[in-house]
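U., I forgot to send this yesterday:
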Amino acid sequence: MIDGRGAVWSPHSTDVHSLYQYTFGHQIVETYDFSKSIEVAIKEFAPDKLILAGPGATLGAPVAQELIRHCWLGLKSKADFAAVQKDDPFLIAMGREDQRKLAV
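Result:
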């Protein structure tokens, strides 16, 4: 899990007390930095694909904007992103029936 500060919370090495403090403290009173979470996800883990769990696909456009902003996979524009998505989708939305099968 990546929080809105860009911190990574790993299943077997997370301090549960710190996660509790973040969840019921910072996360409630501070703005979630979605851009930072996407930046950390792509730069720290270099995924082959990003999967949007859903519901729906409403986060697709904001994620695409972040990928373009970081020139991920050489993306420099919406047209670049659309071309990648057409040929070999990097961003898969489970809320879209046509993309759901690509995640399994």
